[in-house]
Amino acid sequence: MSSGKSAAQLLSASNIGALLDSVELFLFDCDGVIWKGDKLIDGVPQTLDMLRSKRKKLVFVTNNSTKSRRQYAQKFHSLGISVSEDEIFSSSFAAAMYLMVNNFPQQKKVYVIGGEGILEELQLAGYTGLGGPEDGEKRVQLTSNCLFEHDNSVGAVVVGLDPYINYYKLQYGTLCIRENQGCLFIATNRDALGHMCDLQEWPGAGSMVAAICGSTERDPIVVGKPSTFMMQFLLKKFDISTSKMCMVGDRLDTDILFGQNAGCKTLLVLSGVTTQSNLQHPSNNIQPDYYTSQVFDILKLSGP
Amino acid sequence: MSSGKSAAQLLSASNIGALLDSVELFLFDCDGVIWKGDKLIDGVPQTLDMLRSKRKKLVFVTNNSTKSRRQYAQKFHSLGISVSEDEIFSSSFAAAMYLMVNNFPQQKKVYVIGGEGILEELQLAGYTGLGGPEDGEKRVQLTSNCLFEHDNSVGAVVVGLDPYINYYKLQYGTLCIRENQGCLFIATNRDALGHMCDLQEWPGAGSMVAAICGSTERDPIVVGKPSTFMMQFLLKKFDISTSKMCMVGDRLDTDILFGQNAGCKTLLVLSGVTTQSNLQHPSNNIQPDYYTSQVFDILKLSGP
Which NCBIfam families does this one have (chains A, B) (predicted)? Predict the structure, then answer.
């Protein structure tokens, strides 16, 4: 079942063996899969330990751009899971890597609508970022003869989830994209909602990205899921065919679609935003290969 | 030439007579047509006087929702032009009228992402508005167990140009639309850019509207140009066939399209955002019936 058109199979004691045997690399989404907000989901550490003991490779692929890879590794450690920075593929990292693989000139600057994580990844890649949290409290003067100045050496605008979005940043990003010749417009992702706290959802990067689409009348280059841009790095790093990879995630339109677009096996967990009735609703046309309630089931079903 | 497909005719001494004879009502856009920011465009008062002396009816149709009709009438007066409130059709007024003609219940509330003008028109129509400028300085607390509360009696969210856009307002509007059953999502307009000052353009209502589309995955009901919603009021008020109306504006995709969608004659003036080369560019498929440099030409070409 690789087309994604047939209905998903419930993960069970009778099919888990075949899945584990055929997969060398598991890709995990984080929010709703590994943790919810600041709380680890039940049984995750034991399950990851079991997979490592079977010599499976593990990577963590997240659309959340507010943190850098270093900051993500710290979060894993603070939750008692040992993960190295180079097992983490965040959309903040993907944005910096997009610039690098496209030979974006080091002397050009990058304007950021988003969090510290993007700025840190840009810096690690040797680029100069502007904006981000620093522009969060800036206000605009809308007098009749005001002139908003922007840096003409900005060659890319990166937009991610930004809880400090304001009119100053919208105008800055818009002017760069409209007026700086060849300026790139890069979206970390277009998720409608983001997990900003445990009890409810908040507007996601898709909201800020859409705001810039609305003012510039341009479409962004998306580097996070479901775009397969990050897969280039995984393939180069691991040299494993995507048919021997399994994407584990809680969102149909990002995680599962990302896995399917890349040719991976896919496993939906119901511990995040998607319910079984969402999955089985006639309007849903994204079917993973397998689904189960949570990551812990991989351990529980595979037996002692 | 009513299809809008043939190339626009330059307004001239030889065709102005036929235009004036066939038109009983002129609809004018304001920004870029009557004024630019706080400056009146040359020759406008004399031209409007001449049209009134020929017993032409005049109305002013603007997508700018930051002001109410009362505030627009004040602006006209401050520039030395006598215009009554009921000759003004702003998108702020249109939003309130949309609720009224659709029997929106008076006991339900309206959350506003936008300016004072929308709140004033809502109040005049008997509705209770929330949000607007009052929420401009509100910040969100993104702790892990935070819960953002919203009013369950909000039955409509109205989004217009908002220079004080922030994450609080995005979350408030998003929660109302996603969680309050049947909640309407109304956009004053979707213009990419707005005339916030004389020297450059700024992100328009289209940016804020897109941000809410991005987080709610819903499309708005648009009440401003190029939607012909406001035409219902004009037709009821004046009882003039749209073929005897002429829309005068500076934007192809709002003003001219609005006029054409309603079956009016259309006149593009080049005193605002559209240049002659924009008009004549092969990628442009919106052709007005006539074009000229500015409103004053109507007077100058029609002779003594």
Answer: HAD-SF-IIA, PGP_euk
Residues 6+ apart with CB under 8 A from B151: B109, B111, B130, B176
Nearest to B196 among A142, A164, A206 (CB): A142
Minimal Cβ distance to B144: which of A148, A163, A198: A198
Contact: A38, B208; criterion CB under 8 Å:
no
In a domain, A56, yes or no: yes
Out of A199, A222, A245, pick the residue that ends a domain.
Answer: A222
Rounded mean pLDDT of A33-38?
A: 90
Distance (Å) from the alpha carbon of B159 to chain A's nearest alpha carbon: 12
Residue-number span of the structural domain to which B27 is assigned = 9-63+226-301
Is there a domain that residue B87 lies in?
A: no
Residue A117: which of A189, A197, A10 has the closest Cα?
Answer: A189
Q: How confident is the model at residue A2 (pLDDT cuts 50, 70, 90)?
A: very low
* Interface contacts (A, B; CB < 8 Å): 128
Total number of domains constituting chain B = 2
Residues of A in contact with B39 (CB under 8 A): 144
Whether omega before B226 lies within 30 degrees of 0, making that bond cis, reads: yes
Q: Evaluate whether residue B79 is within a structural domain.
A: no
CA nearest neighbour of B33 among B77, B70, B63, B74: B63
**Boundary (domain end) residue, out of A176, A202, A222:** A222
Residues A141 and A201 in one domain: yes
Same domain membership, residue A268 and residue A241: yes
Distance CA A29, CA A61 (A): 5
Exposed e or buried b per residue across A287-300, where buried means at least 16 C-beta atoms within 10 angstroms of its C-beta: bbbbbbebbbbbbb
> Do residues A204 and A188 lie in contact, with contact meaning Cβ atoms separated by under 8 Å?
no
| Same structural domain, B115 and B214 | yes
Q: Was A225 annotated as part of a binding site? A: yes
Q: Are residues A133 and A180 in the same domain?
A: yes
What band does B269 get if pLDDT is binned at 50, 70 and 90? very high
Q: What's the CATH code of the domain at B276?
A: 3.40.50.1000
**pLDDT tens profile A225-284:** 999 999 988 898 899 999 999 999 999 999 999 999 999 999 999 999 899 999 999 999
Chain B environment of A142 (Cβ under 8 Å): 163, 196-197, 202
Cβ-defined contact of A214 to B202 (cutoff 8 Å): no
In a domain, A73, yes or no: no
- Interface membership of B23 toward A (CB under 8 Å): no
Rg of chain B (C-alpha set): 20
What ipTM is given for this predicted complex? 0.92
B45–chain A Cβ distance below 8 A for any pair: no
